[in-house]
Design a protein that fits this description.
The protein is an alpha+beta fold. It folds into two domains: 40-292, NADH Oxidase; 320-523, NADH Oxidase. The protein is built from 16 helices and 18 strands. The strands form four sheets. A seven-stranded antiparallel beta sheet has the order 1-6-5-4-7-9-8. Strands 14-13-11-15-17-16 form a six-stranded antiparallel beta sheet, sandwiched between helices. Helix 6 packs across helix 15 (466-487). The protein is globular, with a radius of gyration of 22 Å. The termini are far apart.
Length: 537
Protein backbone atom coordinates (compact mmCIF):
# COMPACT_ATOMS: atom_id res chain seq x y z
CA UNK A 1 0.00 0.00 0.00
CA UNK A 2 1.35 3.44 -0.91
CA UNK A 3 2.04 5.98 1.82
CA UNK A 4 -0.71 8.23 0.45
CA UNK A 5 -3.27 5.42 0.69
CA UNK A 6 -2.13 4.76 4.26
CA UNK A 7 -2.85 8.38 5.12
CA UNK A 8 -6.33 8.33 3.60
CA UNK A 9 -6.98 5.05 5.42
CA UNK A 10 -5.76 6.43 8.74
CA UNK A 11 -7.77 9.61 8.31
CA UNK A 12 -10.94 7.62 7.60
CA UNK A 13 -10.43 5.16 10.47
CA UNK A 14 -9.66 7.96 12.95
CA UNK A 15 -12.90 9.82 12.25
CA UNK A 16 -15.66 10.21 14.84
CA UNK A 17 -19.18 9.72 13.51
CA UNK A 18 -22.82 9.40 14.54
CA UNK A 19 -22.46 5.63 14.65
CA UNK A 20 -19.32 5.49 16.76
CA UNK A 21 -16.06 7.07 17.78
CA UNK A 22 -12.56 6.37 16.50
CA UNK A 23 -10.81 3.47 18.29
CA UNK A 24 -9.72 4.57 21.76
CA UNK A 25 -8.65 3.09 25.09
CA UNK A 26 -12.20 2.91 26.47
CA UNK A 27 -11.06 3.95 29.93
CA UNK A 28 -8.17 5.85 31.49
CA UNK A 29 -5.50 3.71 33.14
CA UNK A 30 -4.26 6.26 35.65
CA UNK A 31 -1.42 4.00 36.73
CA UNK A 32 0.14 4.31 33.26
CA UNK A 33 -0.49 8.04 32.75
CA UNK A 34 2.65 9.40 31.04
CA UNK A 35 4.93 11.84 32.80
CA UNK A 36 4.27 15.24 31.13
CA UNK A 37 7.93 16.22 31.52
CA UNK A 38 10.80 14.71 29.54
CA UNK A 39 14.12 14.84 31.39
CA UNK A 40 17.64 13.67 30.56
CA UNK A 41 19.22 12.56 33.87
CA UNK A 42 22.99 12.87 33.70
CA UNK A 43 22.95 15.95 31.48
CA UNK A 44 24.28 19.29 32.74
CA UNK A 45 21.49 21.77 33.60
CA UNK A 46 21.62 25.45 32.59
CA UNK A 47 18.91 27.44 34.44
CA UNK A 48 17.25 30.15 32.37
CA UNK A 49 16.12 33.54 33.63
CA UNK A 50 12.43 33.97 34.46
CA UNK A 51 11.90 37.27 32.67
CA UNK A 52 8.78 39.00 34.08
CA UNK A 53 6.24 40.16 31.48
CA UNK A 54 6.70 43.80 30.45
CA UNK A 55 4.05 46.35 29.48
CA UNK A 56 5.32 46.69 25.90
CA UNK A 57 4.99 45.71 23.21
CA UNK A 58 1.24 45.78 23.10
CA UNK A 59 -0.45 42.94 21.25
CA UNK A 60 -1.21 45.11 18.21
CA UNK A 61 2.35 46.54 18.20
CA UNK A 62 3.91 43.08 18.17
CA UNK A 63 1.81 42.09 15.14
CA UNK A 64 3.13 44.91 12.95
CA UNK A 65 5.47 43.52 10.25
CA UNK A 66 8.11 46.13 11.14
CA UNK A 67 9.03 45.72 14.84
CA UNK A 68 8.87 48.75 17.09
CA UNK A 69 12.04 47.55 18.85
CA UNK A 70 14.49 44.65 18.58
CA UNK A 71 15.67 42.88 21.73
CA UNK A 72 19.43 42.48 22.22
CA UNK A 73 20.99 39.14 21.34
CA UNK A 74 21.87 37.88 24.83
CA UNK A 75 21.08 35.28 27.47
CA UNK A 76 18.18 37.27 28.91
CA UNK A 77 16.44 37.46 25.53
CA UNK A 78 17.05 33.76 24.93
CA UNK A 79 15.50 33.03 28.33
CA UNK A 80 12.51 35.19 27.47
CA UNK A 81 12.06 33.40 24.15
CA UNK A 82 11.56 30.04 25.88
CA UNK A 83 9.62 31.62 28.75
CA UNK A 84 7.12 32.99 26.22
CA UNK A 85 6.70 29.94 23.98
CA UNK A 86 7.15 26.65 25.89
CA UNK A 87 7.26 27.45 29.62
CA UNK A 88 4.74 26.84 32.40
CA UNK A 89 2.09 29.52 32.92
CA UNK A 90 0.57 28.29 36.20
CA UNK A 91 -0.17 25.33 38.43
CA UNK A 92 -3.71 24.29 39.24
CA UNK A 93 -4.67 22.50 42.46
CA UNK A 94 -7.81 20.59 43.47
CA UNK A 95 -8.30 18.31 46.48
CA UNK A 96 -4.61 17.57 46.86
CA UNK A 97 -3.86 17.07 43.15
CA UNK A 98 -1.71 19.49 41.17
CA UNK A 99 -1.09 19.86 37.45
CA UNK A 100 0.81 22.38 35.35
CA UNK A 101 -0.48 24.63 32.58
CA UNK A 102 1.78 25.92 29.82
CA UNK A 103 1.85 28.91 27.51
CA UNK A 104 1.60 26.54 24.52
CA UNK A 105 -1.82 24.81 24.51
CA UNK A 106 -2.23 21.05 24.34
CA UNK A 107 -5.06 18.58 23.79
CA UNK A 108 -6.10 17.32 27.19
CA UNK A 109 -3.15 19.23 28.70
CA UNK A 110 -1.02 16.16 27.87
CA UNK A 111 1.79 17.99 26.03
CA UNK A 112 3.38 15.62 23.52
CA UNK A 113 5.61 18.41 22.12
CA UNK A 114 9.25 18.65 23.22
CA UNK A 115 11.59 21.58 22.52
CA UNK A 116 15.32 21.67 21.72
CA UNK A 117 17.86 24.44 21.18
CA UNK A 118 20.94 24.49 18.99
CA UNK A 119 23.06 27.54 19.67
CA UNK A 120 26.52 28.94 19.23
CA UNK A 121 28.54 30.30 22.16
CA UNK A 122 26.60 32.82 24.23
CA UNK A 123 27.61 34.42 27.50
CA UNK A 124 25.59 32.89 30.33
CA UNK A 125 24.61 29.88 28.21
CA UNK A 126 27.76 28.12 27.05
CA UNK A 127 31.30 28.88 25.92
CA UNK A 128 30.93 26.31 23.14
CA UNK A 129 28.17 25.52 20.62
CA UNK A 130 25.76 22.89 21.91
CA UNK A 131 22.48 21.04 21.53
CA UNK A 132 20.11 21.49 24.48
CA UNK A 133 16.79 20.03 25.58
CA UNK A 134 14.33 22.48 27.14
CA UNK A 135 12.77 21.51 30.50
CA UNK A 136 9.57 23.52 31.10
CA UNK A 137 9.14 22.09 34.62
CA UNK A 138 12.20 24.02 35.84
CA UNK A 139 12.62 26.51 32.94
CA UNK A 140 16.10 25.27 32.18
CA UNK A 141 18.14 23.72 29.40
CA UNK A 142 19.82 20.31 29.56
CA UNK A 143 23.08 20.01 27.63
CA UNK A 144 22.68 17.06 25.28
CA UNK A 145 25.86 17.48 23.25
CA UNK A 146 28.76 19.88 22.79
CA UNK A 147 29.50 20.82 19.18
CA UNK A 148 32.77 21.72 17.56
CA UNK A 149 33.01 25.15 15.98
CA UNK A 150 33.24 23.32 12.64
CA UNK A 151 29.89 21.65 13.31
CA UNK A 152 28.30 24.94 14.40
CA UNK A 153 29.59 26.90 11.41
CA UNK A 154 28.30 24.15 9.12
CA UNK A 155 24.94 24.22 10.88
CA UNK A 156 24.45 27.96 10.51
CA UNK A 157 25.96 28.27 7.03
CA UNK A 158 24.02 30.91 5.11
CA UNK A 159 22.74 32.51 8.31
CA UNK A 160 24.16 35.45 10.24
CA UNK A 161 26.14 35.13 13.49
CA UNK A 162 23.05 36.05 15.55
CA UNK A 163 21.10 32.89 14.76
CA UNK A 164 19.80 30.02 16.85
CA UNK A 165 17.66 26.99 16.05
CA UNK A 166 14.70 25.53 17.91
CA UNK A 167 13.73 21.94 17.22
CA UNK A 168 10.30 20.48 18.01
CA UNK A 169 9.38 16.83 18.40
CA UNK A 170 6.36 14.71 19.40
CA UNK A 171 5.91 11.83 21.84
CA UNK A 172 2.75 10.12 20.59
CA UNK A 173 2.22 7.98 23.69
CA UNK A 174 1.38 11.03 25.79
CA UNK A 175 -1.73 11.59 23.66
CA UNK A 176 -2.62 8.02 22.67
CA UNK A 177 -2.80 7.06 26.39
CA UNK A 178 -6.06 9.03 26.49
CA UNK A 179 -7.20 9.42 22.88
CA UNK A 180 -6.14 6.21 21.12
CA UNK A 181 -5.91 6.21 17.33
CA UNK A 182 -6.98 9.85 16.91
CA UNK A 183 -4.00 10.97 19.03
CA UNK A 184 -1.73 11.42 16.00
CA UNK A 185 -4.01 14.24 14.84
CA UNK A 186 -3.85 15.90 18.26
CA UNK A 187 -0.07 15.70 18.38
CA UNK A 188 0.04 17.61 15.10
CA UNK A 189 -2.42 20.22 16.44
CA UNK A 190 -0.10 20.69 19.41
CA UNK A 191 2.94 21.01 17.17
CA UNK A 192 1.10 23.78 15.30
CA UNK A 193 0.25 25.50 18.58
CA UNK A 194 3.94 25.38 19.50
CA UNK A 195 4.90 26.86 16.13
CA UNK A 196 2.40 29.65 16.72
CA UNK A 197 3.78 30.19 20.22
CA UNK A 198 7.32 30.50 18.83
CA UNK A 199 6.06 32.99 16.24
CA UNK A 200 4.49 35.20 18.89
CA UNK A 201 7.44 34.94 21.28
CA UNK A 202 9.70 36.09 18.44
CA UNK A 203 7.29 38.90 17.59
CA UNK A 204 7.57 40.12 21.18
CA UNK A 205 11.34 40.31 20.81
CA UNK A 206 11.29 41.87 17.33
CA UNK A 207 12.96 38.71 15.98
CA UNK A 208 12.09 36.61 12.96
CA UNK A 209 11.43 32.88 12.71
CA UNK A 210 11.39 30.57 9.70
CA UNK A 211 10.65 26.87 9.31
CA UNK A 212 13.55 25.02 7.67
CA UNK A 213 11.18 22.83 5.73
CA UNK A 214 13.76 21.40 3.35
CA UNK A 215 15.15 19.10 6.06
CA UNK A 216 14.32 15.40 6.06
CA UNK A 217 13.04 13.57 9.12
CA UNK A 218 16.21 11.46 9.21
CA UNK A 219 18.33 14.61 9.26
CA UNK A 220 16.33 16.01 12.16
CA UNK A 221 16.85 12.78 14.10
CA UNK A 222 20.60 13.24 13.85
CA UNK A 223 20.58 16.96 14.66
CA UNK A 224 18.33 16.57 17.72
CA UNK A 225 19.94 13.36 18.99
CA UNK A 226 16.82 11.23 18.53
CA UNK A 227 18.30 8.36 16.54
CA UNK A 228 18.02 5.89 19.45
CA UNK A 229 14.33 5.06 19.51
CA UNK A 230 12.29 3.59 22.32
CA UNK A 231 9.90 0.89 21.14
CA UNK A 232 7.04 2.18 23.28
CA UNK A 233 7.78 5.88 23.89
CA UNK A 234 8.86 6.92 20.42
CA UNK A 235 9.89 10.57 20.12
CA UNK A 236 9.59 11.77 16.54
CA UNK A 237 11.41 14.93 15.34
CA UNK A 238 9.02 17.22 13.50
CA UNK A 239 10.81 20.39 12.48
CA UNK A 240 13.63 22.87 12.94
CA UNK A 241 13.12 26.64 13.15
CA UNK A 242 15.78 29.27 12.51
CA UNK A 243 15.48 32.40 14.66
CA UNK A 244 17.34 35.68 14.24
CA UNK A 245 16.76 39.44 14.20
CA UNK A 246 17.74 39.48 10.51
CA UNK A 247 16.60 36.26 8.85
CA UNK A 248 15.57 38.01 5.64
CA UNK A 249 19.27 38.47 4.89
CA UNK A 250 20.01 34.72 5.17
CA UNK A 251 20.80 32.47 2.23
CA UNK A 252 20.67 28.87 3.51
CA UNK A 253 21.82 25.91 1.45
CA UNK A 254 19.47 22.95 0.94
CA UNK A 255 22.37 20.45 0.77
CA UNK A 256 22.47 18.93 4.26
CA UNK A 257 25.16 16.28 3.67
CA UNK A 258 27.84 18.33 5.43
CA UNK A 259 25.60 18.83 8.47
CA UNK A 260 25.11 15.08 8.76
CA UNK A 261 28.86 14.48 8.41
CA UNK A 262 29.85 16.82 11.25
CA UNK A 263 27.01 15.69 13.54
CA UNK A 264 27.88 12.04 13.02
CA UNK A 265 31.58 12.64 13.71
CA UNK A 266 32.62 12.00 17.34
CA UNK A 267 29.52 13.63 18.84
CA UNK A 268 28.87 12.46 22.40
CA UNK A 269 25.25 12.65 23.54
CA UNK A 270 24.77 13.19 27.27
CA UNK A 271 21.89 12.16 29.50
CA UNK A 272 19.40 9.29 29.27
CA UNK A 273 15.73 10.03 28.57
CA UNK A 274 13.45 9.28 31.51
CA UNK A 275 10.77 6.59 31.27
CA UNK A 276 7.36 8.25 31.01
CA UNK A 277 5.19 5.20 31.81
CA UNK A 278 5.86 1.71 33.15
CA UNK A 279 3.16 0.15 30.94
CA UNK A 280 1.96 1.04 27.47
CA UNK A 281 -0.70 0.32 24.85
CA UNK A 282 0.50 0.24 21.26
CA UNK A 283 -1.59 1.86 18.53
CA UNK A 284 -0.11 0.43 15.34
CA UNK A 285 -2.11 2.82 13.14
CA UNK A 286 -0.25 5.76 14.67
CA UNK A 287 3.11 4.14 13.94
CA UNK A 288 2.06 3.51 10.33
CA UNK A 289 0.81 7.04 9.65
CA UNK A 290 3.89 8.50 11.34
CA UNK A 291 6.18 6.54 9.05
CA UNK A 292 4.04 7.37 6.00
CA UNK A 293 4.24 11.10 6.75
CA UNK A 294 7.96 11.28 7.50
CA UNK A 295 9.47 14.16 5.58
CA UNK A 296 11.97 13.32 2.78
CA UNK A 297 14.66 15.83 1.80
CA UNK A 298 13.31 18.51 -0.55
CA UNK A 299 14.77 21.54 -2.26
CA UNK A 300 12.16 23.88 -0.78
CA UNK A 301 14.10 26.86 0.51
CA UNK A 302 12.75 28.51 3.65
CA UNK A 303 10.06 31.12 3.13
CA UNK A 304 11.09 34.21 5.06
CA UNK A 305 8.62 36.36 6.99
CA UNK A 306 6.28 38.22 4.67
CA UNK A 307 5.36 41.87 5.02
CA UNK A 308 1.68 41.65 4.24
CA UNK A 309 -0.88 44.35 4.90
CA UNK A 310 -1.46 45.18 8.58
CA UNK A 311 -3.66 48.27 8.21
CA UNK A 312 -6.79 46.50 9.52
CA UNK A 313 -5.25 45.64 12.90
CA UNK A 314 -7.06 47.47 15.67
CA UNK A 315 -4.81 49.30 18.12
CA UNK A 316 -4.93 48.13 21.72
CA UNK A 317 -3.09 48.70 24.98
CA UNK A 318 -2.99 45.03 26.00
CA UNK A 319 0.54 43.74 26.69
CA UNK A 320 1.46 40.85 24.40
CA UNK A 321 3.27 38.94 27.13
CA UNK A 322 0.32 39.32 29.50
CA UNK A 323 -1.88 37.65 26.86
CA UNK A 324 0.70 34.88 26.39
CA UNK A 325 1.03 34.07 30.10
CA UNK A 326 -2.60 34.41 31.15
CA UNK A 327 -3.93 32.37 28.21
CA UNK A 328 -6.21 29.57 29.39
CA UNK A 329 -8.51 27.09 27.70
CA UNK A 330 -12.13 27.67 28.66
CA UNK A 331 -13.91 24.60 30.06
CA UNK A 332 -17.44 26.02 29.75
CA UNK A 333 -19.18 29.09 28.31
CA UNK A 334 -21.80 31.25 30.03
CA UNK A 335 -24.39 31.32 27.19
CA UNK A 336 -24.90 35.08 27.52
CA UNK A 337 -21.67 36.97 26.72
CA UNK A 338 -21.84 38.83 23.42
CA UNK A 339 -19.13 40.55 21.42
CA UNK A 340 -19.42 43.39 18.94
CA UNK A 341 -18.99 42.83 15.23
CA UNK A 342 -15.73 44.83 15.26
CA UNK A 343 -14.27 42.44 17.85
CA UNK A 344 -15.35 39.42 15.80
CA UNK A 345 -13.75 40.93 12.71
CA UNK A 346 -10.45 41.30 14.59
CA UNK A 347 -10.46 37.53 15.15
CA UNK A 348 -10.95 37.03 11.42
CA UNK A 349 -8.27 39.57 10.46
CA UNK A 350 -5.70 38.06 12.85
CA UNK A 351 -6.41 34.61 11.39
CA UNK A 352 -5.72 35.78 7.81
CA UNK A 353 -2.01 35.63 6.83
CA UNK A 354 -2.36 38.27 4.08
CA UNK A 355 -3.71 40.75 6.63
CA UNK A 356 -1.69 39.68 9.68
CA UNK A 357 1.42 37.72 8.65
CA UNK A 358 3.51 37.45 11.83
CA UNK A 359 1.46 34.71 13.59
CA UNK A 360 2.14 32.51 10.55
CA UNK A 361 5.80 33.23 9.84
CA UNK A 362 6.78 29.55 10.31
CA UNK A 363 4.00 28.36 7.97
CA UNK A 364 6.10 28.18 4.81
CA UNK A 365 3.36 27.14 2.36
CA UNK A 366 0.32 28.79 0.84
CA UNK A 367 -2.67 28.74 3.21
CA UNK A 368 -4.70 25.55 2.88
CA UNK A 369 -7.04 25.96 5.85
CA UNK A 370 -10.24 28.03 5.97
CA UNK A 371 -12.74 28.67 8.75
CA UNK A 372 -16.33 27.43 8.64
CA UNK A 373 -18.01 29.59 11.29
CA UNK A 374 -21.08 29.13 13.47
CA UNK A 375 -21.93 32.68 14.64
CA UNK A 376 -24.10 32.67 17.78
CA UNK A 377 -23.79 35.91 19.77
CA UNK A 378 -22.19 38.75 17.80
CA UNK A 379 -23.87 42.16 17.88
CA UNK A 380 -24.71 43.65 14.46
CA UNK A 381 -24.09 40.31 12.78
CA UNK A 382 -26.95 37.89 12.06
CA UNK A 383 -26.76 34.40 13.54
CA UNK A 384 -25.76 31.93 10.90
CA UNK A 385 -23.20 29.92 9.04
CA UNK A 386 -20.22 31.94 7.75
CA UNK A 387 -16.97 31.21 5.97
CA UNK A 388 -13.56 32.86 6.19
CA UNK A 389 -11.54 32.34 3.03
CA UNK A 390 -7.80 32.37 3.85
CA UNK A 391 -6.59 31.70 0.29
CA UNK A 392 -8.36 33.48 -2.56
CA UNK A 393 -7.25 30.80 -5.05
CA UNK A 394 -9.63 28.29 -3.45
CA UNK A 395 -12.82 30.35 -3.77
CA UNK A 396 -14.15 28.93 -7.03
CA UNK A 397 -13.47 25.33 -6.02
CA UNK A 398 -15.08 25.84 -2.61
CA UNK A 399 -18.17 27.39 -4.14
CA UNK A 400 -18.57 24.41 -6.45
CA UNK A 401 -17.91 21.95 -3.60
CA UNK A 402 -20.23 23.50 -1.00
CA UNK A 403 -24.03 23.51 -1.08
CA UNK A 404 -25.40 25.26 -4.13
CA UNK A 405 -27.94 27.33 -2.17
CA UNK A 406 -25.35 29.13 0.00
CA UNK A 407 -25.55 32.89 -0.62
CA UNK A 408 -21.80 33.75 -0.29
CA UNK A 409 -22.62 37.30 0.80
CA UNK A 410 -20.21 39.76 2.40
CA UNK A 411 -21.70 40.81 5.78
CA UNK A 412 -22.29 44.45 6.56
CA UNK A 413 -19.23 46.23 7.96
CA UNK A 414 -16.77 43.68 6.60
CA UNK A 415 -13.59 45.26 5.16
CA UNK A 416 -13.20 44.79 1.43
CA UNK A 417 -9.88 42.95 1.79
CA UNK A 418 -11.27 40.45 4.34
CA UNK A 419 -12.83 37.48 2.58
CA UNK A 420 -15.61 36.74 5.06
CA UNK A 421 -18.89 35.40 3.67
CA UNK A 422 -22.33 34.70 5.08
CA UNK A 423 -23.46 31.32 3.75
CA UNK A 424 -26.81 30.88 5.49
CA UNK A 425 -28.69 32.74 8.25
CA UNK A 426 -30.13 30.82 11.16
CA UNK A 427 -29.60 29.51 14.68
CA UNK A 428 -26.79 26.95 14.39
CA UNK A 429 -26.20 26.55 18.14
CA UNK A 430 -27.78 23.07 18.44
CA UNK A 431 -25.99 21.85 15.32
CA UNK A 432 -22.62 23.26 16.42
CA UNK A 433 -23.05 21.43 19.73
CA UNK A 434 -24.16 18.20 18.08
CA UNK A 435 -21.23 17.91 15.66
CA UNK A 436 -18.74 18.77 18.42
CA UNK A 437 -19.50 15.41 20.08
CA UNK A 438 -22.39 16.99 21.97
CA UNK A 439 -20.12 19.42 23.81
CA UNK A 440 -22.23 22.39 24.92
CA UNK A 441 -19.21 24.68 24.81
CA UNK A 442 -19.47 24.78 20.99
CA UNK A 443 -22.95 26.31 21.11
CA UNK A 444 -22.75 28.32 24.31
CA UNK A 445 -20.14 30.87 23.24
CA UNK A 446 -20.08 33.83 20.88
CA UNK A 447 -18.99 31.74 17.92
CA UNK A 448 -17.40 28.42 17.10
CA UNK A 449 -15.76 27.10 13.99
CA UNK A 450 -14.39 24.18 12.06
CA UNK A 451 -11.03 24.51 10.33
CA UNK A 452 -11.74 23.21 6.84
CA UNK A 453 -8.63 22.36 4.86
CA UNK A 454 -7.93 21.58 1.25
CA UNK A 455 -7.05 17.91 1.56
CA UNK A 456 -6.65 15.52 -1.34
CA UNK A 457 -5.02 17.93 -3.80
CA UNK A 458 -2.23 19.28 -1.54
CA UNK A 459 -1.39 15.75 -0.38
CA UNK A 460 -1.21 14.50 -3.96
CA UNK A 461 0.82 17.52 -5.09
CA UNK A 462 3.23 17.90 -2.16
CA UNK A 463 3.45 14.34 -0.91
CA UNK A 464 2.29 12.32 2.11
CA UNK A 465 4.53 14.31 4.48
CA UNK A 466 2.28 17.33 3.96
CA UNK A 467 -0.48 15.67 6.02
CA UNK A 468 1.19 16.75 9.25
CA UNK A 469 1.54 20.32 8.01
CA UNK A 470 -2.17 20.75 7.40
CA UNK A 471 -2.67 20.18 11.12
CA UNK A 472 0.26 22.47 11.97
CA UNK A 473 -1.50 25.26 10.09
CA UNK A 474 -4.64 24.59 12.13
CA UNK A 475 -2.66 24.77 15.37
CA UNK A 476 -1.06 28.08 14.39
CA UNK A 477 -4.53 29.50 13.66
CA UNK A 478 -5.70 28.25 17.04
CA UNK A 479 -2.82 29.96 18.82
CA UNK A 480 -3.61 33.43 17.50
CA UNK A 481 -7.31 32.90 18.25
CA UNK A 482 -6.39 32.01 21.84
CA UNK A 483 -4.40 35.22 22.25
CA UNK A 484 -7.00 37.42 20.58
CA UNK A 485 -9.60 36.02 22.97
CA UNK A 486 -7.48 37.10 25.95
CA UNK A 487 -7.03 40.57 24.48
CA UNK A 488 -10.81 40.78 23.88
CA UNK A 489 -11.59 39.91 27.51
CA UNK A 490 -13.11 36.50 26.75
CA UNK A 491 -11.76 32.96 26.43
CA UNK A 492 -11.48 30.19 23.87
CA UNK A 493 -10.61 26.55 23.55
CA UNK A 494 -9.68 24.05 20.88
CA UNK A 495 -12.03 21.12 20.24
CA UNK A 496 -10.47 17.94 18.90
CA UNK A 497 -13.58 15.81 19.38
CA UNK A 498 -15.99 16.44 16.51
CA UNK A 499 -17.97 14.27 14.10
CA UNK A 500 -16.00 14.55 10.90
CA UNK A 501 -18.44 13.64 8.14
CA UNK A 502 -21.53 15.20 9.80
CA UNK A 503 -19.53 18.46 9.81
CA UNK A 504 -18.80 18.00 6.13
CA UNK A 505 -22.49 17.49 5.39
CA UNK A 506 -23.34 20.86 6.97
CA UNK A 507 -21.26 22.53 4.26
CA UNK A 508 -22.08 20.08 1.48
CA UNK A 509 -18.67 18.39 1.24
CA UNK A 510 -19.20 14.93 -0.25
CA UNK A 511 -15.64 13.81 -0.96
CA UNK A 512 -12.09 14.27 0.37
CA UNK A 513 -11.34 17.46 -1.55
CA UNK A 514 -11.79 19.32 1.76
CA UNK A 515 -11.82 18.01 5.32
CA UNK A 516 -12.46 19.54 8.73
CA UNK A 517 -9.32 19.05 10.83
CA UNK A 518 -9.85 21.03 14.05
CA UNK A 519 -12.65 22.86 15.87
CA UNK A 520 -12.55 25.92 18.09
CA UNK A 521 -14.94 27.93 20.24
CA UNK A 522 -14.83 31.48 21.65
CA UNK A 523 -17.00 33.12 24.30
CA UNK A 524 -17.53 34.23 27.88
CA UNK A 525 -16.02 31.60 30.19
CA UNK A 526 -17.42 30.06 33.35
CA UNK A 527 -14.54 29.88 35.82
CA UNK A 528 -14.21 26.78 38.01
CA UNK A 529 -13.95 28.35 41.46
CA UNK A 530 -13.10 24.99 43.03
CA UNK A 531 -9.60 25.18 41.57
CA UNK A 532 -6.69 27.00 43.19
CA UNK A 533 -4.22 28.76 40.89
CA UNK A 534 -0.56 28.72 41.89
CA UNK A 535 2.43 30.50 40.30
CA UNK A 536 4.32 28.58 37.60
CA UNK A 537 7.71 28.59 39.36
Amino acid sequence: MSDLKKIFQYHQFSKHGNNGFAPGPGYLDWASQPDPFRRYPGAQIVPLEKVPPAERPYFSEALQPAPTSIAPWNFTSLSQLFFDCLALSAWKSFQGSQWALRVNPSSGNLHPTEGYLISGPLEGLSTAPAVFHYCPSIHALEVRARLSMEAWETMRAGFGPQTLFIGLSSIYWRESWKYGLRAFRYCQHDLGHALGAVNMACAGLGWQAVLLDHLAGETLEVILGLTKKSETEVEVPDCLIAISPKLDEAKPDTDTRQILEVFNKDLQWMGTPNVLSHSHVEWSGIHEVSQATEKPPTDHLPSFPCTGEASLLEEDAFPLRKAIHQRRSAVAMDRRTRIHRSTFLQFMIKATPALCPLPFQTISWEPQVHLGLFVHRVDDLPQGLYFLLRNKKHLQELQSTFKSDFVWKKPQGCPETLDLFLLEEGDFRPLATSVSCGQQIAGDGCFSLGMISAFRQPLEQQGPWFYRRLYWECGAIGQILYLQAEVSGIRSTGIGCFLDDPVHRIFGIQDTSYQSLYHFTVGGPIEDTRLTTLPPY
